[in-house]
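Quick one: Fur family transcriptional regulator from Exiguobacterium chiriqhucha RW-2, structure tokens please.
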Amino acid sequence: MKETEQLTRLQSSSLKVTPKRIEMFAFLAAEERYVSAKDVLDYMRAKHPTMSFDTVYRNLKSFAEEGLLEATELNGEKAFRVTCGSNHHHHHLICRGCGKTKLLELCPMRYVETLDPDFEVVDHKFEIYGYCKQCK
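--- reply ---
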């Protein structure tokens, strides 16, 4: 994601745009994988040694609430990645080793909906976890 697109996405949220938030979001946008709050903290502390875990986690949660980040549980902890820029419905394959994701161009919900036509689906999340070629 280009730097101007990152800034535009951040500015379009209801969050106050600060230099540290820009820096944090830029780090996340440069990653092609899910990252933990600790990964973000390690990155941010290199430039801001006094930054706390609570500050990082609170910002990650705010980014996710604004729809800027997607969250999942990976290896027992919450992990985050920038929300896909793709406008079409899709899901992901997620590596449990490195957190990299791969776009999955199908949705199994059309099959699930046929099992109970009286059940109204309002939302769903479908992720497949495994190991990429480099991690297996």
